[in-house]
Amino acid sequence: LAQLTPQGDDTVLRLARANWAEQLRDWDDTIRQLAPLAERKQLDRADWQRLANAYVQRLDEPGLNHLLEQAPDADEARQARLAMVDRAVAMGHTAQAQRWLQSLPPADLDHPQQRQRLWELARQTGDAPTVQRLSEQLQRPCLETAEWLSRRDPDAALAQLKRCDAQDDPHTWLVLAQRLQAVDLL
After folding, report:
1. How far apart are the C-alpha atoms of 149 and 66, rounded to whole Å?
2. For residues 52 and 78, is the Cβ–Cβ distance under 8 A?
3. Closest CA to 61 of 75, 79, 47, 80
4. 171 φ/ψ angles, rounded to the nearest 5 degrees
5. What predicted TM-score, i.e. pTM, was given to this entire model?
6. What is the mean pLDDT of residues 72-83?
C-alpha cells in the first residue's frame, strides 16, 4: 500500500494505510496517514478515534489538543482525555497526567474517583495547593495533610496544623508542631 501512488483515491489509500499501521502499532505512520484527513475534516467517528488513540500512544499533547477541537461529541473528547491520563500515568509522566486530568469538564472532576486520582497525582508532583484543596474535599485526615505539606510548604503546613485537632493523634501533632516551630501552638 505504501508503494501505491494516489489516483484520485488519496483518502481511501490513507485510511487503508492507517488501518494497517494501527494493526502494527506504528503510531507515527497512523498519525502521518490520518492527520491530513483530520485537517480536511474528512474523518468519521472510527477514524477520529483511531487518530486520537495514536496521539495518546505517542503522548502527543499538541496533536491531541488540536484533534479535540473537532471531536465527534463531548463524550469522545472526554474518553480521549482519560486515555491520555491513563497513558501518561503508565509511562510515569505524572505532571502530564495531572494536566490532562485537570482538562476534564468540571462535572467529571466532581466525581470522587477522578478527584482521588487528581489528589494522588498532585501528591506525586508536589502540587501543594491542589493537595491541600483536594484533601479537604476528600475529607482526608487533617494531620496527614499537614505532615505532607510540612516537607513541601511549611507556611501552608502551619496553617493546616492550626486547623487540626491535637487529640486525633497527639504524638504526630506534637512532632509536626516542633518541626514547624509552631511556638504559639506549643
Report:
1. 36
2. no
3. 80
4. -65, -50
5. 0.79
6. 95
